[in-house]
Write a structure and sequence with these properties.
Structural class: mainly alpha
Shape: globular
Radius of gyration: 24 Å
Number of domains: 3
Length: about 475
């Protein structure tokens, strides 16, 4: 027997909330159905200012608005930089969780997370901890749905990336006391090709890496102790002719060598395929259909790398919606699972670093702490392992009990209108209010068998925890 029109509509709304955001809060499925899925998508693609979110972040704005220079000067002047900077770092990480849980502009937040992961820098890498807030705020977020060339240039110029990949140390070869000193650092040139644009399988050579690195000599940082700003030093630039992955750069170039290479790579067919595949992997499937990747690549090339146009084409495809009507789903990463669980119970987040952050670390995905430049995997299946599942179940139980520091939970929000003394009533209410009535009968039956003779934690709390840890809650 096929699905009814009502069931199809609810599954479609839930799929939009799960794939374009971090999942539904109580009442979200009905709200999307009332306004229409198309209208919801349109407003996600063209987000308006979120005044309620800004109000939540207001108490932290004293540090969230600081430039890198201000961060360095403020905390260096305290006389104890290592400890005092923690308040700034806490606010930065708190803001990420608060935005992810509470913003109405869910797609914008998911894309900010996606692009930060694509252009990963590690918060524990020396100077990066003081520049990372500016990197996300000034280089990533403004371009998350803009032109990829602008995003690529903003990350290439940002001191956090310059430091993380050592490009601030890269200079042209020079003669010192009659000896030739090689100052070139190839890290950025290599990762620009391998991770940021055309991909490791594009067929570039070591010579391409070498000349790509030469194109960015002289791109540096004014002062990592008290400045933290981009600086181009022409005397450190290699002005010789270069050839990088098919782009010929004549001798005599300066900063424009790197800028020309960025524009060239941003709209290269290999970049279109590589980034389209990554976007489809994040939003559609761990192994995205080649037909979808091809269409997204075509849009990329036709629009000179317009990210919003590519995402819109992806959302408009049949492949994007196919898993809305299957029982498989795409496994959630730890971050997706934690944020979606907090949203599902209708919780309020005031802070995250001591609570939510600790659980993410246990699950293997601490915020902003991916060490290699590859970033965390967007393949959900790679996060499925016994230890991670145990930590997820523990998180679900702690969350339902209100034991996660900085997160306020009321089980009535999760099971609106339910008889909290009846496991069956709680399970049915949560299924309807949050999950669009998509839980399998067997899942609801299992939750309904919770022993009511145990009162601590209450039956309602245990039912909530079971539903948060259920197979249906582990996928999106």
């Amino acid at each position: 027997m096929g699905l009814s029109a009502s069931e199809l509509a609810r599954k479609t709304a839930l799929h939009a909330l799960n794939r374009l955001g971090f999942g539904p809060r109580p009442g979200d499925v009905e709200a999307v159905l009332d306004r229409g899925v198309e209208d919801y998508i349109r407003k996600q693609l063209d987000p308006a200012p979120d005044a309620a979110l800004e109000s939540r972040l207001a108490p932290m704005q004293n540090t969230l608005r600081l430039s890198t220079t201000q961060v360095l000067v403020t905390y260096a002047d305290s006389g104890n930089l290592a400890s005092s900077v923690q308040a700034y770092l806490d606010n930065f990480q708190n803001a990420k969780i608060i935005r992810s849980v509470h913003t109405v502009n869910q797609l914008d937040e998911v894309l900010a997370d996606f692009w930060f992961n694509h252009f990963n820098v590690n918060i524990n890498d020396g100077f990066v901890r003081y520049a990372i807030q500016s990197f996300e705020r000034d280089a990533i977020r403004p371009h998350a749905m803009g032109k990829f060339a602008d995003l690529l240039k903003a990350t290439a110029e940002h001191p956090a990336m310059l430091y993380y990949l050592d490009n601030y140390l890269s200079t042209a070869a020079r003669t010192v006391n009659g000896r030739l000193v090689q100052g070139l650092n190839e890290n950025y040139g290599r990762e620009l090709l391998e991770l940021h644009t055309v991909g490791v399988d594009a067929g570039y050579t070591q010579a391409d890496v070498y000349d790509a690195a030469r194109a960015f000599t002289g791109w540096g940082i004014d002062n990592t102790g008290r400045g933290g700003n981009f600086r181009y030093l022409s005397t450190s630039h290699d002005t010789g002719a270069k050839s990088a992955f098919g782009l010929q750069l004549s001798a005599g170039g300066q900063k424009d060598d790197g800028e020309r290479l960025i524009k060239y790579l941003a709209t290269h067919p290999n970049t279109a395929r590589f980034i389209s595949t990554k976007l489809a992997r994040r939003f559609v499937a761990d192994n995205p259909p080649q037909s979808l990747v091809d269409r997204m690549s075509e849009v990329w090339l036709a629009t000179d790398g317009d990210i919003k146009a590519v995402v819109k084409a992806m959302i408009g495809s049949s492949e994007f919606w196919s898993e809305a009507f299957s029982s498989a789903g795409k496994p959630k990463t730890p971050f997706e699972y934690v944020v979606s669980s907090i949203r599902a119970v209708g919780a309020e987040v005031s802070s995250a670093t001591r609570g939510v952050g600790a659980y993410l670390s246990q699950m293997g995905q601490p915020m902003y702490q991916c060490i290699p430049p590859t970033g965390y995997s967007d393949s959900g299946a790679e996060w499925l392992n016994p230890s991670s599942q145990i930590y997820r179940m523990n998180f679900a139980l702690d969350l339902a009990q209100g034991l996660v520091t900085g997160v306020t939970v009321n089980v009535r929000n999760f099971a609106l209108g339910a008889d909290l003394n009846s496991p069956s009533s709680v399970a049915k209410a949560a299924n309807s209010e949050v999950f669009g009535s998509t839980f399998a009968p067997s899942t609801l039956a299992a939750a309904s068998r919770v022993d009511t003779r145990i009162t601590n934690p209450s039956a309602a709390v245990r039912v909530s925890a079971l539903l948060l840890a259920a197979p249906e809650s582990q996928v999106r």
